[in-house]
Amino acid sequence: MQSTFGKNIRVSIWGGSHEPAIGVDIEGIPIGTRIDMNQLRAFLKRRAPGNSPFATKRKEPDLPIPVRGVAVWGGGTPPVQAGDPGQVESDQSAAILSGDSIGNHAQGNAVPSDSTSSADNTSSFAQGADDPGALAEAPVIITAEPLISFEIRNTDTRSGDYKGLRAVPRPGHADYTARLRYGDSLNMAGGGPFSARMTAPLCIAGGIALQMLEEKNIEIGAHLYAIAGIKDTPLDPVNVTAAELESLQKMEFPVLSEDAGEKMAEAILQAKKDLDSVGGVVEVCATGLPGGIGGAMYDGLESYLAPIFFGIPAVKGVEFGAGFHAAELRGSENNDPFYYDNNGQVKTRTNCHGGILGGITTGMPLMARLAFKPTPSISREQDSVDLEAHKNETLVVKGRHDPCVAVRAVPITEAALALGILDCIMEVTK
């Protein structure tokens, strides 16, 4: 099963929580684009499980392994400019992964971009190594084909914890609806393709998008806006800076108010002690966006972003700018007055519009908030049904689960925003 989104940057996520591997195919990134793998690995580490008391105890290194469409150097900056495939192919120091064997690419027999997904292929290193995992520590790679692929190997699966859930679905989870839609064709251990585990490959694609946007001086960051009804200090929608967003990226528990952060942490740990979970809201922001990105109606930036946001497991609400609060305001309160700043740039004195008007960026910071429901998998007894015995049943969920998914969702939200912005920018620059 694949989950695909995007117009100009096509992202396909494949695998399942307890499959041997999960991964992502990315089509549309210009050939010759440089990817800093150290930066990408650091980004995925922010989302990885097992690193804090607020996350599942499942231990996964979440190493992004390139398996198709990239050229790999042993170190340093590749001598290539984006959009120059000839230079990539002519450089003999590069190891190019293509299809099921890079040797085919070296002989001029590259696998077409519409070939079978990397999920069904096994790539090898140029020097003949059988294990593409050897590429996981490469410092720098560049794209060498229109389609690139990465995988993450699952190393800490416990499928036995989920055997009973095929017949007795978890309340609040997709166990029941997945069975209605797909029958028994999906491996739903750990949530299968509906698991938050699937956000790891999303973060590979989003981490690459973040690097590409940084080259355009666009910075993205997020924080825990609210946990269990406890609110953090909101970002200043007018004056937020790139430096402020960068500082949030370095925090294990990203909040602006230390006091609010302590209360949030207490609420999460109390829910965990109670064998329960809590929900939260993540506020995400992009600075440096030029005006004029997006379009009318379904070409609007919100239209690009919303499907990606709602594809993140547990997201139940999305708002931009003042969002639902705008419905409580008068026009005179919600309208953002225009003015020329000292540099002759058009700005707004307030930012209820969240950086987007009519689906098009204004040049003000882009502001969005995503609401995450409490983790459905809790260890308290709950009412359910036995779909095979056709009777009412009680359920105590086993396994390892986040007491609050919003904490690890912060980098995921950044990744989703980056992908939507990049996709929209490429539409405008065609």
Structure description:
- The longest helix is centred in the last third of the chain and has 24 residues, at 405-428.
- Mean pLDDT is 82; it is low at 76-94 and 98-130.
- The strands form 6 sheets. The chain has a 5-stranded antiparallel sheet with strand order 1-2-3-9-5, with helices on one face.
- Helix 1 packs across helix 5 (199-214), helix 1 packs across helix 10 and helix 5 packs across helix 10 (405-428).
- It starts with a strand and ends with a helix.
- The chain has 10 helices and 20 strands.
- The radius of gyration is 22 Å and the shape is globular.
- The protein has 430 residues and is of the alpha+beta class.
- The protein folds into 2 domains: 2-196, no CATH class; 215-428, Chorismate synthase AroC (Chorismate synthase, AroC fold, 4-Layer Sandwich), CATH 3.60.150.10.
- A hairpin with a 4-residue loop joins strand 19 and strand 20.
Give a brief description.
With 430 residues, this protein is of the alpha+beta class. The chain is built from ten helices and 20 strands.
